[in-house]
Write a structure and sequence with these properties.
Layout lengths: L17 E10 L2 E10 L2 E4 L1 E3 L4 E3 L1 E4 L1 H11 L25 E4 L1 E4 L7 H13 L16
Antiparallel strand pairs: 1-2, 3-8, 4-5, 6-7
Length: 143
């Protein structure tokens, strides 16, 4: 399936996709804080292939899923997370532990396109199906 190698952890000092924040507040007289991440909006597309009478999903290697499995099997990898230098990941787990089956999806990062147009682009890019905006049906949206 996937061949991954030369894995190493590093601090993430900036990202195009995630922005960490800390909210400080007082609740019922008690000072508190909560850390959270801001991320891009996204579209997800549930695809039904009418000729084969089946749903279409995307099979992908996801580094975050992989690293959750690494932490579960080798928790010592994250013990140095506050230090400048992270170790290389010796004897990595097989890539398959980070493979997911998921809906076709993508981030909303093209302000000149509608959500529907972005969805059509993602379906073509990830699944190879050319669909028109008129063929889409909105199922739901959420925050």
């Amino acid at each position: 399936m996937e061949a991954i190698e030369e894995l190493s952890l590093q601090p993430c000092t900036s990202s195009l996709y995630l922005r960490p924040f800390r909210l400080s507040y007082r609740q019922n007289g008690t000072k508190k804080f909560w850390d959270f991440m801001r991320a891009h909006d996204s579209v997800s597309i549930l695809i039904f292939n009418t000729s084969r009478q089946c749903f279409v999903v995307v099979k992908q290697f996801r580094p975050a899923v992989y690293m959750c499995e690494v932490e579960r099997h080798r928790p010592q990898v994250f013990q140095n997370q506050d230090k400048e230098k992270f170790p290389c990941l010796e004897d990595p787990l097989p890539a398959v532990v980070g493979v997911t089956y998921e809906l076709c999806a993508g981030i909303v990062d093209k302000p000149d396109l509608s959500l529907e147009e972005i969805a059509c682009e993602e379906v073509l890019e990830e699944c190879g199906y050319r669909v028109s905006v008129a063929d889409l049906r909105r199922i739901t949206s959420y925050r």
